[in-house]
């Protein structure tokens, strides 16, 4: 998917919501456990009820890999279901990959070619030759971890390396990579006050912003400091939406939660006109 298609979709739906499919067998409604593929059935229910309110879905791969072959099959069915029924929706494989170039190419093929995701999250720690293999894929997007939402972000990411913090160095250096136009960045919603500085370095890039909802980040602050002329934000909530109810009405409850966030996003978009 091109960035232009994503921006047009955001304006059409008046939403820049990404719903995280962090599907946990210990949290999904009991009645689904009787199905042959409970993870897929849960995801299908969420997608059917919420697709008109969001522009992206982000399955976190850990929740699928944890179940071995069964989990991987559920992931495959989920991405096929999305691509077949909602091809306009941006899909993110939250895999946090990155390795020596030869290996990164295989990761890229696994998620971009085999599974046909539009994007993947990648850890920047191994540098240029671990990231450029992902960037080589046309109309696919590599979402680099810049400043993450968790407490451990302060261990390394905000430490100074020379003149600037490590996360700033990640942003600035990655802009020089081949096919850098295919980069997006992760910035946690819990770090919204850093967004002004981040926007100085990457004014035009899309930011994936997880951490509203269960982690307590503020949508209003993220929009205030992080929005750019193309909106430039994909704000993710996982548990806050998909586990709004633990019974048979889980999909309706998820749609209600997603609807509330979409309304807030619409208000922000109208005000920014
Ligand atoms: O890359 C991510 O998506 C990510 C980066 C980050 O800094 N913080 C973060 O929470 N995430 C992911 O975003 C999702 C957040 O889930 P909730 O806290 O339930 O909304 C999880 O899948 C996390 O792995």
Automatic annotation (TrEMBL):
Transmembrane segments: none annotated. GO terms for molecular function: orotidine-5'-phosphate decarboxylase activity. Signal peptide: none annotated. Pathway: Pyrimidine metabolism; UMP biosynthesis via de novo pathway; UMP from orotate: step 2/2. Coiled coil: none annotated. It catalyses: orotidine 5'-phosphate + H(+) = UMP + CO2. SUPFAM superfamilies: Ribulose-phoshate binding barrel (SSF51366). Its EC number is 4.1.1.23. Residues 16-254 form the Orotidine 5'-phosphate decarboxylase domain. Keywords: Decarboxylase, Lyase, Pyrimidine biosynthesis. GO terms for biological process: 'de novo' pyrimidine nucleobase biosynthetic process; pyrimidine ribonucleotide biosynthetic process. It is an enzyme of class 4 (lyase). Belongs to the OMP decarboxylase family. Type 2 subfamily. This is Orotidine-5'-phosphate decarboxylase. It comes from Pelagihabitans pacificus.
């Amino acid at each position: 998917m091109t960035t232009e298609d994503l921006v047009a979709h955001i304006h059409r739906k008046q939403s820049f919501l990404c719903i995280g499919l962090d599907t946990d067998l210990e949290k999904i409604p009991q009645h689904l456990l009787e199905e042959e593929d409970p993870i897929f059935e849960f995801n299908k229910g969420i997608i059917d009820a919420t697709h008109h309110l969001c522009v992206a879905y982000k399955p976190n791969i850990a929740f699928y890999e944890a179940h071995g072959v069964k989990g991987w099959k559920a992931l495959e069915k989920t991405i096929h279901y999305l691509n077949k029924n909602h091809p306009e929706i941006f899909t993110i494989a939250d895999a946090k990959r990155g390795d020596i170039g030869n290996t990164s190419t295989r990761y890229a093929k696994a998620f971009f070619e085999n599974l046909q995701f539009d994007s993947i999250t990648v850890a920047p720690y191994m540098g240029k030759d671990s990231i450029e293999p992902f960037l080589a894929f046309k109309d696919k997007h590599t979402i680099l971890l810049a400043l993450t939402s968790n407490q451990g972000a302060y261990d390394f990411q905000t430490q100074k390396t020379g003149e600037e913090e490590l996360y700033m160095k990640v942003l600035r250096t990655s802009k020089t990579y081949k096919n850098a136009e295919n980069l997006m960045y992760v910035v946690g919603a819990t770090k919204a006050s850093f967004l002004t500085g981040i926007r100085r370095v990457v004014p035009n890039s899309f930011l994936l912003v997880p951490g509203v909802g269960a982690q307590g980040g503020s949508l209003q602050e993220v929009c205030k400091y992080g929005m750019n002329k193309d909106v430039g934000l994909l704000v993710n909530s996982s548990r806050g939406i998909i586990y709004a109810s633990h019974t048979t009405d889980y999909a309706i409850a998820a749609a209600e939660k997603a609807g509330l966030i979409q309304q807030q996003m619409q208000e922000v978009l109208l005000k920014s006109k």
